[in-house]
Amino acid sequence: MIQRIQSVFLFLLAAAVISMLFLPLWSKTDAATGETVILTAWEVKSEILNADAASAGSTTSKSAIAIGLLAIAAAVVALVEIFQFRNRLNQMKLGLLNSLVLAALLGTSFYYAAYVANPLIAGTDNGSYQAGFYMPMLALLLNALANRFIKRDEDLVRSADRLR
């Protein structure tokens, strides 16, 4: 049924990855030039904020659409998984698929932060991870909890079938 605890976990998973679409994932600021690089789920945006520079206010961006598409895919799989409550084996398969999508999402986010956005700006620090970067980790935890409770339901049904 939809009111089971794994459905709540799956709904929270979908909410976490959807919120990732609107939150910044990573940012870095160069204090000397005033340049800021921000990674979101859709783009890597570089802005020069220093007013005394000749190019103040100019922005450049690169696409990071892979992060957004993987986040949408993870949310869709989780929502489909909620409504597969009559077939727990399909739910477990979708849970495994969602684990793979979430791992790819986490890896892609790290790749864009470390290898695409970080070299865009000079500086000694590596930038800072924002709230959106941690959403795939939360989603992986929620997916593991949902899979555990789905497996528990399947084991309960199988033990009840043995007693008949």
From TrEMBL:
One Pfam family recorded for the sequence: DUF4293
Keywords, comma-separated and alphabetical: Membrane, Transmembrane, Transmembrane helix
Transmembrane regions: 64-83, 95-113, 133-150
Keyword Transmembrane: yes
Protein name, entry field: DUF4293 domain-containing protein
Organism from which the protein derives: Pontibacter burrus
